[in-house]
Design a protein that fits this description.
Blueprint: E1 14-15, E2 20-23, H1 29-37, H2 51-57, E3 68-73, E4 76-85, E5 101-107, H3 116-131, E6 137-142, H4 146-155, E7 158-165, E8 168-174
Helix pairs in contact: 3-4
């Protein structure tokens, strides 16, 4: 992945008050099959794949790429955070060449509504800023995905434009480097 070329991977585990972010391990495979086959999780990202089909395609050690973090809570995988190069063919890229890092995240439904996504993404962004300080960080989500929009807002992403991808209106934004201090205040109320 050229946009994170030269980054040491996997990094040391990243810990927050409640979570561990780490590289994927073989023990995560079943949870990843659950994640990518769940229609609720995949509603806004193109739809779920049948579990049997994913089982045939997924390697025994899934998620082996730079920028692919497993979110662990109580020693169990509950989701993922990723930094992938943004495809220059998609609408809304920051530069004509593309390749900006795009934040992605997915959580299993039993982890929803507890602030884990915001906490994990804030920790992952902190890591990203240390290893790729000059690389733009972008994010997009369907406008219909109100939970994702709330998470993006809590993290401090700034809307750049509204676009359309895959036949659906999208919110497209950048994370301004001036927001580095904001990451420390993204824990849910009462945490």
């Amino acid at each position: 992945m050229a946009h994170l070329e030269g980054v040491t991977w996997p990094p040391a585990h990243i810990t927050t008050d409640r979570l561990v972010l780490r590289a994927a391990e073989a023990r995560d495979r079943e949870a990843m099959l659950d994640l990518f086959s769940d229609p609720r999780v995949n509603r806004f990202v193109g739809g779920a794949e049948p579990r049997e089909h994913l089982d045939e395609l997924m390697p025994e050690l899934p998620g082996q790429r730079t920028g692919f973090f497993v979110i662990e809570h109580d020693r169990r995988m509950i989701g993922i955070v990723t930094f992938d190069p943004r495809d220059p063919e998609r609408s809304g890229p920051v530069s004509a060449e593309g390749g900006e890092a795009e934040l992605g995240y997915m959580l299993l439904p039993d982890a929803w509504g507890r602030g884990y996504g915001t906490e994990a993404c804030a920790a992952a962004i902190s890591w990203f800023l240390q290893v790729a300080p000059d690389l733009p960080l972008v994010v997009s989500t369907q406008l219909a995905n109100t939970s994702s929009l709330r998470l993006i807002e809590k993290l401090g992403f700034v809307e750049v434009e509204r676009t359309e991808d895959w036949g659906h209106p999208q919110w497209y934004g950048m994370w301004p480097r001036s927001n580095a201090q904001r990451l420390e205040t993204t824990r849910p109320a009462g945490q």
